[in-house]
């Protein structure tokens, strides 16, 4: 019986190096207000150190310059990298580029690899993924209205995209558009690679949000409004086959949610560390906070929840490695909403323990708190994932015979009496 919670010693050495490197080098970038070109120059030498360690773009196969790590190893890496917004960027596994690279690696042509994938993997290009629209619920992408029509020579794309991460700093965009409006709802859409400077494609603005109310243009981590007006691309721009838009999207969604959750664990651990440190020296009503039962309860609850999320997420990653993404659908949906709640709750407790200091911008907690709110929306709202988990569990149940509960004691007593009638007759 295999039941192993250990990490290979050689890989643990890599994780230890990553942890030290992230804290010593990448944390520093958080307190600098760098635009995109300056940030790229700042991270370039750090990315070279990552390459020297053999940890660059580890989510892809070795022939593509990655390490071919499975989801468990990638999850353990993302736990460390997720403690800072710039961790994945320095290691070449940031969203949405990592998911886009996986799509290209899975269904891209040789020409698409040469033009887009290899520069993306080398850190020479960056990308965005345009799915959501302002007039349609992102939780139901079958309602897309952005269209791509074929005129005999080119595809012509028209539509309005909303909250497209990193569009302002990307070199190309993968756009999901309707190519067959009368087809089955999951066969209506296809995906296209569009250069960011294509005529008719306009990044209208960086959208202010809870996370970043007043975004500065041309900065990493933005969310953008994008319009497409008669954008023309050739047949070589399509990713995968016509009508495969939703099938292709699944390549990035399952593993992506594992990485989201492991990054959230890294953020929650960082908030947990700040909370525990604060409790050791901050005094109120005659003793330090560490002596207060409520604060101790918060610390204990946070530790238990982080550990539960970590093990549940790694189990989902293990199932993907062993059985494939489809077999792990229920596990992936479960960690998505479970992880978002834990991330919020741990950060919220850490803010409370710090009081006005935690609420101020003198600590990273206030930014972490604002960013954590989006976790309940990313890759589908929590409500959709909770409903999916419940439906999948309910498939394993059916109404009992005569609608008498399986555990109904009088019915069970009758069956037991018949089964043990001889024994009961001998009982004094």
Give an overview of the whole structure.
It comes from Gordonia bronchialis (strain ATCC 25592 / DSM 43247 / BCRC 13721 / JCM 3198 / KCTC 3076 / NBRC 16047 / NCTC 10667). InterPro entries: Acyl-CoA_dehydrogenase, Acyl-CoA_Oxase/DH_mid-dom, Acyl-CoA_Oxase/DH_mid-dom_sf, AcylCo_DH-like_C, AcylCo_DH/oxidase_C, AcylCoA_DH/ox_N, AcylCoA_DH/ox_N_sf, AcylCoA_DH/oxidase_NM_dom_sf. By secondary structure, this protein is of the alpha+beta class. Among the domains are: 127-239, Butyryl-CoA Dehydrogenase, subunit A, domain 2; 255-395, Butyryl-CoA Dehydrogenase, subunit A, domain 3 (Up-down Bundle), CATH 1.20.140.10. Helix content is 49%, strand content 13%. The strands form three sheets. A four-stranded mixed sheet has the order 1-4-5-8. A four-stranded antiparallel sheet has the order 2-3-7-6, with no helix packed on it. A two-stranded antiparallel ribbon has the order 9-10. Helix 5 (97-107) packs antiparallel against helix 6, helix 5 (97-107) packs antiparallel against helix 7 and helix 9 crosses helix 12 (382-394). It is globular. The mean pLDDT is 93.
């Amino acid at each position: 019986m295999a039941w192993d919670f250990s990490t290979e010693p050689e890989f643990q050495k890599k994780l230890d190096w990553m942890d030290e490197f992230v804290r010593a080098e990448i944390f520093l970038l958080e307190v600098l207000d760098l635009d995109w070109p300056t940030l790229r120059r700042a991270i370039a030498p750090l990315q070279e150190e990552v390459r020297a360690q053999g940890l660059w773009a580890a989510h892809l196969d070795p022939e593509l310059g990655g390490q071919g790590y499975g989801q468990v190893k990638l999850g353990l890496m993302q736990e460390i990298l997720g403690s800072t917004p710039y961790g994945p960027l320095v290691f070449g596994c940031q969203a949405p580029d990592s998911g886009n690279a996986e799509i290209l690696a899975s269904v891209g042509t040789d020409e698409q690899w040469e033009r887009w994938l290899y520069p993306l993997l080398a850190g020479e290009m960056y990308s965005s993924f345009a799915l959501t629209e302002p007039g349609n619920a992102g939780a139901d992408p079958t309602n897309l209205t952005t269209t791509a029509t074929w005129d005999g020579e080119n595809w012509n794309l028209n539509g309005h995209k909303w909250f497209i991460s990193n569009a302002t700093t990307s070199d190309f965009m993968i756009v999901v558009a309707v190519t067959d409006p009368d087809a089955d709802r999951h066969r209506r859409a296809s995906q296209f690679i569009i250069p960011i400077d294509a005529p008719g494609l306009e990044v209208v603005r960086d959208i202010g949000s809870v996370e970043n109310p007043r975004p500065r243009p041309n900065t990493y981590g933005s969310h953008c409004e994008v319009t497409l007006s008669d954008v023309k691309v050739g047949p070589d721009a399509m990713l995968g086959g016509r009508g495969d838009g939703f099938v292709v999207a699944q390549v990035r969604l399952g593993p992506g949610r594992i990485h989201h959750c492991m990054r959230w664990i890294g953020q929650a651990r960082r908030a947990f560390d700040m909370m525990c440190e604060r409790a050791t020296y901050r005094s109120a009503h005659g003793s330090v906070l560490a002596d207060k039962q409520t604060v101790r309860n918060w610390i204990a609850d946070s530790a238990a929840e982080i550990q539960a999320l970590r093990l549940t997420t790694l189990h989902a990653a293990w199932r993907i490695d062993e059985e494939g993404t489809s077999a792990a659908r229920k596990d992936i949906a479960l960690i998505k909403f479970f992880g978002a709640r834990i991330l919020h709750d741990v950060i919220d407790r850490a803010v409370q323990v710090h009081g006005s200091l935690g609420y101020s911008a003198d600590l990273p907690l206030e930014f972490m708190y604002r960013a954590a709110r989006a976790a309940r929306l990313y890759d589908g709202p929590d409500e959709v994932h909770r409903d999916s988990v419940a439906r999948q569990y309910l498939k394993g149940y059916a109404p009992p015979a005569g609608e008498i509960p399986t555990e109904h004691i009088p019915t069970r007593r009758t069956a037991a009496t018949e089964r043990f009638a001889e024994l009961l007759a001998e009982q004094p």
